[in-house]
Design goal:
The complex is a heterodimer of chains A (356) and B (232). With 356 residues, chain A is of the alpha/beta class. Chain A is 45% helix and 8% strand. Chain A has a 4-stranded parallel beta sheet with strand order 2-1-3-4. Chain B has 232 residues and is mainly α. In chain B, helix 10 runs antiparallel to helix 14. The longest helix of chain B has 18 residues. The chains are: A alpha/beta (356), B mainly alpha (232).
Chain lengths: 356, 232
Amino acid sequence: MIYQGKQKIWSDYQKEIPDNHWFYVRSCIRQSFFPASEGHFVKIVRDLLGKDLYETPHHTTCGGIAYHSDTIPQETAMTIVARQFSLMKEAGYKNLVTSCITSFGNYTEILETWREFPELETRIREHLWKACRREFDKPEYVAHASDVVYKLRNEIAEKAKFRLVNHETGEPLRIVEHIGCHYSKMFPHKGVGGAEYPCVLSGMVESWGGKVIDYPERRHCCGFGFRQYLVKANRGYSVSNTHKKFESMEPFHPDLIITNCPGCPYFLDRWQYVISEQTGKTYGQNGHGIPALTYEELAGLVLGYDPWDLGLQIHQVGPEPLLDKMGIAYDPARKYLGLDEKDIMKPGLPTVLKCY
Amino acid sequence: MGKLYDELCKDYRFKEGLHTCINCGTCTAICPAAEFYKYDPRKILDTIQRKDEAAIEALLKSDTIWYCGECMSCVTRCPRKNGAGLVIMALRNLSAKLGYFTYSEKGRQLYPLTKALNYNVLNLGYCVHPSTFVFEDHPESGPVFQWVLEHKEDVYARLGANFGKEGPGALRKIPQEDLDELKAIYDETGATERIETVEKYSLAKAEEMGMTPDEYLKFTFTHCSKGHFNNE
């Protein structure tokens, strides 16, 4: 009976995720900073696992960053999203999957607001018609791309070439996860595990052989804060919050940080560089940083894709210590080559953080 | 224009964000902004609940409402299902509409944000895009991203993006017909008017401060006075 009770409670933290027929909308930040992550998401879901994932070149930004930087009214953000729904209707899809946590939060907030205030939905339908002569249906399901990977995590595990295990010691890698604020802090029931028991990333880690490390500031913001990063004068806020997380996770000696939101891996990567330049401190072993990867990059490594095809060379924290632990072979000479092995020189090196 | 409190009540984020605050301070305890900035969301909700017009006007003209990072950590924890972050969004919206944002240093940052983000949305179809990401403004992006920006075409092609080209894929060129629809949405829903309002009040403030528009843009993007942080 007690077990049934727990099962019942846990069911509140589950999320229904359809396993096929997705309308895919991209992320401004992920495309700019982790373009190969989106490429490999499509490759894994569509090409490797044979799912139906559709993208139209006519979709645009959802406007989420402009909205959360307070530069556009709420009804503008809602009408841009309504246009994305219209494109989905045109294409004949009902399941929307977004590559961005800000977008996921934006879509979710809009649908929940319309549910509570139907007159606002009516007004947005009028706006969209007047502006674009478009109509839309609301999606039946909205998921973040990580929900889809979570859903498919065991299929990925079956095809894995590598596991999240130290190949020399046989011990599981120690991994911290960061699910991103707008995934489930606003609407906990819309995220797998809610805000209290986030398991969208930890589920992947455990399926692929790693060990999830809990730490005190696990749920703290990465420090983006929209205007608090975008305006140069405010970046003290951003780095201070990320620093708080690093200090909290440091005693647990993580091998890796896995992230959900496209912005979080940028901040968890680049602020390690900045902290090292400012204070001389590094958080990895032997002067390295802690690699901060997207979940698509981690899935790609597990499946045996080349680290340089996955784009790990455009992180500032070098991935080599992680690749060595996992026993993944890589060619250092190819790390910074362009398309068709073109020589496009190499980036400069940080003064403190060890990189290759 | 009615009373400020009445104006706030028209905002759906205000309707959703402020029910009955019991001033427990949980929002302040969890808030990433409160830890570093002189910022206390509990006090802000307290001020608004008093419906004191002078106090609300002072808030709209203050740095205080611009310290929040809109992470919405407060929404999860509030025992009464309020959202201080949502209330902040409504306050910022009203401050922008009335031009009160130019009274504070952090508020004046709305000018560079409005220019940069809306340029990207309306001209590129993205909020953030490598073609307008300037390394000198983002030294924290590190030498690796300086290299990426110097070799954009090659690096993005190497990583499988469809950079600046037609068709689907990462960083594709958004067709003009879709950018035209975004512009029509801006015109219809008040974003164009908002951009013009922010520009009008900002340029007036620039003149008052004895700066050219370009000097003001750069100054508001980079200048941080002492006194914003808890440890100052």
